[in-house]
Structure formats: C-alpha cells, structure tokens
Amino acid sequence: MTPRLTAEFWVQAYLTRLRLNDIPAFVTSKGDATAGSVIVKLNTLDGNSQAFSRSWDAAGNRVWTVFSEGADADVEAYLARQRSFDPDIWIIEVEDRHGRTLLDEPGLSG
After folding, report:
1. Is residue 105 a part of any domain in this protein?
2. Which among 12, 60, 72, 95 is least surrounded, fewest beta carbons within 10 Å?
3. Burial, 44: exposed, middle or buried (Cβ in 10 Å; 0-12, 13-18, 19+)?
4. Residue 79: domain span
5. Domains in the chain: how many in total?
6. What is the CATH number of the domain that holds 39?
7. pTM here?
8. What is the pLDDT tens value at each position of the chain, 110 positions in all?
C-alpha cells in the first residue's frame, strides 16, 4: 500500500506550486491536519466558480471531479453545506481568470 500524504502537507505543496506559477490561492477553511479532505474552489473572477474534490475513477485512480459549478454565491452555499457536514475539510480558493488550477499536473492527484 502506498503511503498517503497528510492533508496539511499536500495543501502546502499545492499552494507552493500555485505560487510558483503566479496563481493566487488562499486557505479559506483549515481542516484536520492529518486526514481532512480537500476541496479546491476555482474563482474565475467573473462571478462564476467551480468546486473540485478528489474521488476515485472506474479504474481505481484518484481524480479531481467538479462537484459544484455556477454562480459564485451558489458554489459558496455548496461549500457552506459541506463545512456543516464535515468541519475537518480544507477549502482552498484559487483565483484565476484563465481557469488554471494545476490539478491535472503530475503529483497533485494524491
């Protein structure tokens, strides 16, 4: 079995990768340092957003999936509901007009 990174370690590495690509990002909800799940909110700064969460594909690989998208207020409402169910989640807000999250890059699926 492959060891998994702690949530906090993954979040810090992700924020560093975004910073190196000049993509602003902020932790808007700090979850459990060890095992908290992570949601990435992409704000395209045009009133719309998407929320990504890790899941498993049919082949058993970890992938990022859009769980909510649309008006920023609607995505925020979705995130508020998620926080009420799971106070240990991490939420990272990425702000990029071009829609870049870097989640498709190697090393960020884990």
Report:
1. no
2. 60
3. middle
4. 7-95
5. 1
6. 3.40.1530.20
7. 0.90
8. 455 778 999 999 999 999 999 999 999 999 998 888 999 999 999 999 999 998 888 888 888 999 999 999 999 999 999 999 999 999 999 999 999 999 988 877 65
